[in-house]
Amino acid sequence: MSTNTYINADCVITGNRIYKNGRPVFDDQAAAAPDFLVSAYRHFDLQYPKFYKMDHTSRLGWLANELLLQEGFQKEKYRPEEVGIVLSNSNSSLDTDIRYYETVQSIPSPALFVYTLPNIVIGEISICHGFKGENAFFVSEQFDTGFIEQYVNGLVNNNILQACICGWVEWLGNDYRAALFLVEKMKTANSVIFTAENLNKIYQIENG
Amino acid sequence: MTPIFISADNIISPVGDNTADNFNGLLRDVSGVNLHTGSPFSAQPFYASLFNPGHFSYQTGKQQYTRFENLLIASIVDALANSAVKAADTKTVLIISTTKGNISLLETETASAELNRRISLNTSARLLASHFGFVNTPIIVSNACISGILAILTGIRLIRSGQYDHAVIAGADVITRFVLSGFQSFQAVSAAPCKPFDAARDGINLGEGAATMIISSRKEYSYGAMVMGGATSNDANHISGPSRTGEELNMAIGRSLQEAGLLAAGVDFISAHGTATLYNDEMEAKAINLAGLQTVPVNSLKGYYGHTLGAAGLIESVIAVKSLKENTVIPTRGFSSMGVTQPVNVCTGVYKNELRNCLKTASGFGGCNAAMIFGKE
User: Fewer CB within 10 Å, N or C, chain A?
Assistant: First the structure.
C-alpha cells in the first residue's frame, strides 16, 4: 500500500505562460486570456479541430494535457481502462454557466449547455486519447493537494489504475490556472515522488 | 475489499420527506411527475417532478440559505437523527453531490464577483459544515449524472484509506429555467411522462430532490446493509452521447462485482439509470447483456422522480437499499412494451423475492459511467 508513486510529468498554465516539467516553454503576454490558448495551440502546432468547439475550461485542460503527455508518456504500455483522470477546481463550470444563461434569453445554446458541467474537460481528454479508466471531478476552494494525493494513490496502489492524470483546471472571467500531473508507478530519471508537498510546489511554480 | 456499513439514510422529494414515505409512495404508484403550465421556467408546458411552492420552509432564521442548501439541510437533519454517527466527530466527513447547486441565483440576482462567491459550491459546503458542526473540510463531487454514486464511492474510499470512520453523503439539485432550458435545447425532454426502456420512449422528465446516506467502517453503526464495491469509467466516445456498445459501463459493473467479491449470478436486481432517452436506455441494455445480467430484474425510478441529476444516484441507491431490506423491487413506471434491442428483464409490477445484493448504475454527460453494489448484512 505504501509503495511510492511518481509524478513523471507536469504542466502548468497560468498568467499567459506555460511551464512543462518546471521549465517555461511558451509565453505570450500580449494576448487576452482566451486568445492566449489559441496562440499556444498554434505555437505547438497541435492538430485537433475539436479544440475550437470547446469552452475555455476544456480548451485549457485539453491543452495542458497535450503538453503534459508530449515526450515521455508511453500510452501503448497501458490498456484504455488503466488510465484515469481526477480533476478539481474552485468554481465548477461557472464561466460557461454565465455564458450559457445569456443565450437563454434568446435561443438557448445546446453547444454551450453541454459545457455547463465541470467534468466535460475529463470527457474531452478521454475522447482525444481513448482513456477509459476511473474519472472524477471534485470542487474545492483551493487545490486540495492532500486529498488528491490520497485519492489518486488509492486508485493506483489498489491497481484500479496504472496511470492517472490529476490536477487543477480553473477558468473564470480572465482568471485561470491549469496544473496537471502524470502519476505513474515506475520511476524515471526525472521522477518526483507524488506527494501533496510536491504537488503544491509545482502548482505555484511562478513563485518557486 | 472490506464492505462499508450503511447507518441511516433519507430522501426528500415531491413523493415524500423520508425514506419510508418515499418507498411506500412508490409502492402505491405515487409519482412526483406532473404537467406544469404557465411556469416561469418555460413558455411551453412540461412534465417534471417539482416541489410545491412552500414545501421547503426550513430556515434557521440566522442565515439565509438558498433553496439548494435548505434541501440538503432538511435531508441531512433527518438522516443524522436516525444514526449514531455524529457530525462533530473528527473521524466524520461530509460529502456533497450536485450538478448545478445554486445556479438558479444567476436567474434572479445581478452579476457580480460577490454573486459568483455566493453561487460557489464551496460557500454552500462551508455553510452546511458550520450548520451541523462538521469539523473536517467537506468534499464536493460534481461529475454530471454519476455524481451521487461517485460521492458514495468517494466515501467508501476515504473510509477504507483509514482517514475517516464515517461519511455523511448528501446530494441535491433543484430545477429552474437554467437546467430545463438546457435539456429542452437538446431536445431531450419528453412531452409526456417518461417511459424508461419502452418502445415509445422519447426523452427525460426532470426532477428535484435530495438524499443522504450515512456510512461507516464500524458494524455497530449499521442498519443492516452495506456498500460492497463500486467503480467509474469513461466512454471516451462523445461528450453528450453515450457509448454505442455499453462496453465501458460494463467495465464499471465488472470492477464493482469484483470489489464486492460477487459473480453476476449474485446480483438479485438492478436499479438502472433508465433516463428514457433513446440512447441511454439502449446503451444500458447492452451493458447489462455484456455483464450477463439480462435475466435479472431491472427497474428505473425516473417515472416517479424524474431525473434528479446530482441527487439521482443517491435517491435511487437509498431506494435500492430499502428494496433489499424489504425484499421488494419497485416497478418501472411508464414502461409497457420493450423498446431496447437487447433483452432485459424490466420490472413491470412489484416484485417480491429474497434479495441479497443489488447493482446500481448511472451514466452522464462527459461519457462517465458508474456502478455500485449494495448488499444485506
Answer: N
The answer to whether B89 and B303 have CB atoms below 8 angstroms apart is: no
- DSSP secondary structure letter of residue B204: B
Q: Do B184 and A108 touch (CB under 8 A)?
A: yes
A1 confidence band (pLDDT: 50, 70, 90) = very low
Residue A187 counted as domain residue? yes
pLDDT (0 to 100) of residue B122:
98
Q: How far apart are the first and last CA of chain A?
A: 31
Provide the shortest C-alpha distance from residue A24 to chain B (in Å). 31
SS3 A11: strand
DSSP state of B333: T
The confidence score (pLDDT) of residue A75 equals: 94
In the Cβ-directed half-sphere of B67, how many Cα atoms lie within 13 Å? 19
CA atoms within 13 A on the CB side of B258: 11
ipTM of the complex: 0.97
Query: Cα–Cα distance between B266 and B357 in angstroms, integer?
Result: 7
Instruction: Tell me how far apart the alpha carbons of residues A116 and A121 are, in angstroms, rounded to a whole number.
Output: 11
CATH of B225-376, one of 2.40.50.100, 3.40.50.300, 3.40.50.970, 3.40.47.10: 3.40.47.10
Q: Which superfamily does B4-221 belong to?
A: Thiolase/Chalcone synthase (3.40.47.10)
- B65: cell is 440559505
Bridge pairing between strands B351-352 and B345-346 = unpaired
Which cell is B377 given?
448484512
Task: Give me the numbers of helices (H) and strands (E) for chain B, helices first please.
Answer: 11, 16
Residue B27 pLDDT > 60, yes or no?
A: yes
Measured between beta carbons, the chain B residues lying within 8 angstroms of A108 are 181-182, 184-185
Does the reported pTM lie above 0.90? Answer: yes
| Contact state of A119 with B142 under an 8 Å Cβ cutoff | yes
At B306, the amino acid letter reads G
DSSP secondary structure, A140-170, as one string: -SS--HHHHHHHHHHHHHTTS-SEEEEEEEE
- Nearest-CA residue of chain A relative to B365? A120
Do residues A164 and A173 make contact, with C-beta atoms less than 8 angstroms apart? Answer: no
